[in-house]
Task: structure prediction
Amino acid sequence: MLSVGLRPCSGAILVLLFTAALGAFWIGVVGTLAMALGTAITVSSLGFLTVASRALALRIVGPGGSARVARIERVLGFLGGLLVFAIGVILFVTAVNAPAGPFGLS
Result:
């Protein structure tokens, strides 16, 4: 999980570049730290909700539902992958059919 935070964020780099160009570098540093805190809160919350919801689902199913749970996990995993694939196809088709210039001008 720590390695996710090691990559540079393009938004933070832009904030730092703009504030440095305006002569307010430390304001950019504070803004970047605020962005990092917001990202940390969001990612941590999603991770906590994922673990908690899985534990709740396993408690609801009970100890005798291991085969049923495995089947449901496979189906949900397949549907999740299918959803990601469909979104990728939609984004690709949209990008291919987009106009070459801004505002629909070629």
Remarks:
- The chain has three helices and no strands.
